């Protein structure tokens, strides 16, 4: 084996080892960032769920008092109105993220708050078995 061939083999081996180390390091960093983002999103969902629960509980608790003044008072509609108002304060969310609230009615998913491609006050339902 000549000196040139040995040098080429050594460079090829070192390049392969370097590529393997870089690939493993990138995979570890990606997985770590993915898990951190997942944990952050879980915290956000839990926080939003708590907020919604508190707003709905409060609106339900004041129902008897407000119904005396206004028999048409609907605590569900009042809660949705407050949530819409709160989320309109964050206009950038719809550009890079999305917050939506829905419930199942029969075989439809009925959106209570907006989703990205529809009117904030009148989101369209979609079938439960939809692939969209």
Question: Keywords, please?
Answer:
132 residues; mainly alpha; 3-stranded antiparallel β-sheet; 3 strands; 64% helix; elongated
Structure notes:
This protein has 132 residues and is mostly helical. It has helices spanning 3-61, 63-69, 75-88, 93-96; strands spanning 102-105, 108-111, 126-127. It has four helices and three strands, in the order ααααβββ. 3% of the residues are buried.
- Structure annotation, total helices: 4
Order of helices and strands: HHHHEEE
Number of strands: 3
Radius of gyration: 27 Å
Set down the secondary structure blueprint.
Layout lengths: L2 H59 L1 H7 L5 H14 L4 H4 L5 E4 L2 E4 L14 E2 L5
Antiparallel strand pairs: 1-2, 2-3
Concise synopsis of the structure shown:
By secondary structure, the protein is mainly alpha-helical.
